[in-house]
Amino acid sequence: MESLRVNSLNHILANLKQYTTCTFNLFFLQEKSQILGKQCVCHNGCCVQEYPCVSVVNLGPSNAGYNESEDIDERKENVRIAVAVGAKQLREVGVTSIDVDSCGDAEAAAEGTTLGLWSYDELKKKSSQKPKIAVNLLDSSELSMKGWQTGVIKGNGQNLARRLMETPANLMTPTKFAEVAKSVLKVATVTVRDKAWAEAQKMGSYLSVTQGTDEPPCFLEISYMTGRPEDKPVVLVGKGITFDSGGICLKPSSGMDKMRADMGGAACTLSTIYTLEQLGVPANVIGLIPLTENLINGKATKPGDVVVAMNGKSIQIDNTDAEGRLVLADALCYAHTLNPQAILDMATLTGAMMVALGSGAAGVYTSSNHIWSLLQKSGGVTGDRVWRMPLWNHYSRQVGDSQLADLNNIGKYGREGGCCTAAAFLREFVTTSEWAHIDIAGVMEAKDEVAYLPKGMAGIDVELFDVLTREISGQLGVQ
Ligand SMILES: [Zn+2]
């Protein structure tokens, strides 16, 4: 087995000067290329004697820091990017073991490698699967090791969300998702609620979606209560549509396969709690995950049907593809019964969000300046940026104008401001001021724009929510 090393250009050059065999390539990179993530690979021990192959990557400007106009901590982000590029390059040339330089931030370096080397290929034949790479930290100081381990746990947490989202819908039904939750969580308790429970709760909105599929619904309640008993829980609510056909308002077939990831909010909710558990963070967090498919059997909801949610509000369902808000409505009502300190819901809710912000940021709707500032700060540090969207009565009026019921599940002007009317609809089921809705539809899938997130489902926001939950729980400052 070869032993290999990834290093940052800025760091390695100091070491390289002592090796007379050092090649031109390294200095070419330093002098001619200032492109972040630009890398080269040296073979046959040309650079550092103990390693037969070294990947040298440009780490960007040495004075990188928090960039206000970009809303991101570029020092951390550059480390994630550079290390991911180097690690992937070494895998390309067939190495099986990599030692990674911390580049001054072991946690970010660990995130970059753990996320960058991950791939979903378990359903392919062995020879087509990417090789498993052993990755270690080069610097073994206690502080670096601690940061490294934290970064690996966070990366693995996000990779869990990516795996859940990528898994085909026939292999990730509501029942299967519940089984995964039970198998990965060791400290948190997972309660699986069935259809009869939802009926007893009068969750007519959630049940209207579940009635269209033969798969039994599961409403998960995950309790991670390791904080102080007197602290109220933070309640996370994740949309869990394990496949969204659109129902009778059928989606176009092109790209419909991606709707296996319409449980991205559910995946991130589970992964956030999994990450908190793995890190041993003391916090009180409850995850609510309403799971179902949105399909078309003989009992499926018809456009114009009216159902009644848990809080007694009637809803005219004019678009069966706007089902996410229907399952979230009852989950949000139920969240209020748990004496929450704050409620955060995350959902791949609207195509309109994707149109508005693309993959650049998740959209946040909240009336709480406090939660918004925490989200913005956490997003800048973790690289999962967010952008505040309007939660105004202007949009509430558009969903409150229904011919048959109290509310309509789509805005009266159709697609216009669709992500805003969706958020306004959700607000009808919220009474606490400490609530935020995060629409992650646009960031659901990575498109090769970020080096440490190869093309595929992104599982984004896990680290964001990990940091945020801790911040709200008052356990730790943003790190
Ligand atoms: Zn839908």
TrEMBL record:
Hydrolase is among the record's keywords: yes
Record-linked Gene3D superfamilies: Leucine Aminopeptidase, subunit E, domain 1 (3.40.220.10), Zn peptidases (3.40.630.10)
PROSITE patterns given in the database record: CYTOSOL_AP
Keyword tags: Aminopeptidase, Hydrolase, Protease
CDD domains tied to this protein: Peptidase_M17 (cd00433)
SUPFAM superfamilies the UniProt entry points to: Macro domain-like (SSF52949), Zn-dependent exopeptidases (SSF53187)
Catalytic activity line of the entry: L-cysteinylglycine + H2O = L-cysteine + glycine; S-benzyl-L-cysteinylglycine + H2O = S-benzyl-L-cysteine + glycine; an S-substituted L-cysteinylglycine + H2O = an S-substituted L-cysteine + glycine
InterPro entries the UniProt entry points to: Leucine_aapep/pepB, Macro_dom-like, Peptidase_M17_C, Peptidase_M17_N
Keyword Protease (UniProt): yes
Cytosol aminopeptidase domain location: 319-326
Listed EC numbers: 3.4.13.23
PANTHER family: CYTOSOL AMINOPEPTIDASE (PTHR11963:SF23), LEUCINE AMINOPEPTIDASE-RELATED (PTHR11963)
Role summary: Cytosolic metallopeptidase that catalyzes the removal of unsubstituted N-terminal hydrophobic amino acids from various peptides. The presence of Zn(2+) ions is essential for the peptidase activity, and the association with other cofactors can modulate the substrate spectificity of the enzyme. For instance, in the presence of Mn(2+), it displays a specific Cys-Gly hydrolyzing activity of Cys-Gly-S-conjugates. Involved in the metabolism of glutathione and in the degradation of glutathione S-conjugates, which may play a role in the control of the cell redox status.
Similarity comment: family membership: Belongs to the peptidase M17 family.
Protein name as it appears in the record: Cytosol aminopeptidase
Native source species: Cordylochernes scorpioides
